[in-house]
Write a structure and sequence with these properties.
The chain is mostly helical. It contains 5 helices and no strands. Helix content is 51%, strand content 0%. The model has no long low-confidence stretch (mean pLDDT 74).
Length: 125
Amino acid sequence: MASTLLIIQLVLTILIVIAVLLQKSSSMGLGAYSGSNDTMFGAKGPANFLVKATFILGALFVINTITLGYTYNSERQKSVVDTINANSLIPQVPASQSVAPVAPVVPTTEAATPAPSAPVAPATK
């Protein structure tokens, strides 16, 4: 549910930005690029429509923000540790396969035998 509300929040944000940028200002904003706004929205132009649309989008944005905050807060009260089953962390060995623990074998050091000596060549007279 939180992911759906987050997507709605992003869409509302984009729509509010567009509605605000299209409104008439001292420099005309992006409304100057649309050209024939007067014919589409009537004699007064898009000003009245855009003001109402911005107000409605703003109200929806605030409501969605409060809902998102409530949803995230209620999900946060659930701990991940509460959802983990303690028995699932310890591997269980079936009784038929259980064996007694075996002590590790420690290698013993034996007395090292000296290396054989090299054959001695007979002395020549």
